[in-house]
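Journal club side-thread
Mid-discussion, someone asked how the predicted structure for our own chain would compare to the paper's figures. Pasting it here so we can look after the session.
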Amino acid sequence: LGDIDGLSLAVTASGGRSWHFRYCWNGKQKRMSMGTYPEVSLREARSLRDEARKLLAQGVNPQAHRRHTREADRLAEENTFKSTFDHWVEH
């Protein structure tokens, strides 16, 4: 089910529903998931789509940006003083 500006709601045969944003990057069609409905409402999905469109306007691939952000968050969580201390104690 299409919305506007590349946002759509994909419905599977088993009834699963997920938001997708379609965009072009380097001349290729790309699609990134914005979450599942009803956990992510239409208003939230449109907001996420708008953020992704802003990144595209700045010349940044939104899917790669999200991957790098998640990796940075994971590394920041793993490399705390407490986790380093716990690792040292185990050693």
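Post-session note: The beta strands are 7-11, 17-25, 28-36.
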